[in-house]
Amino acid sequence: MKSAVSALVLGLVASSSTVSAEPVRWTTFSIPQTGTSVDFPASIFTEEAGRPDGYGQRFRTADGRADLTIQAAPNVSNDSPAAFLAKKHPPARIQYKRTTPRFFAVSSYKRDKVWYNRCNFSSGLIHCVLLNYPASEEREWDHIVTRISLSLRNR
């Protein structure tokens, strides 16, 4: 289970997609076992890319340049978002970090990718979205990342 929890924060996969000029088609992905749900751009993340530890699904773009993981796992130590994040020893050069009593969101660069991770905490579970996308397209991804992040819900 420790590996599942580590994957929530640091197991960020680097792949992914071009943000196209066509309208984005959004849908809701739900994890019935945990009550996790999130809006995601199904017209961008068109391919399933396996299952993460715990519950959920990984998606990627057809060209493999971006990926999205929607995941939930037990909070076995009943950590707060700040304590959980501190235990994972995130990279020192995090560009963005916000921690509240109910969630954390962190983002930074890894090689030529931007990675973003948000996890909500509730009822003994950690509900997360993890994204990786080309740093050269950061501005084009901003609205997509924001909508995904703000739509993350749990029961």
UniProtKB/TrEMBL annotation:
What organism, scientifically named, is this protein from?
Answer: Bradyrhizobium huanghuaihaiense
Q: What is this protein called?
A: Uncharacterized protein
Q: Does the keyword Signal apply?
A: yes
Leader peptide range in chain numbering: 1-21
> What UniProt keywords are attached to this protein's entry?
Signal
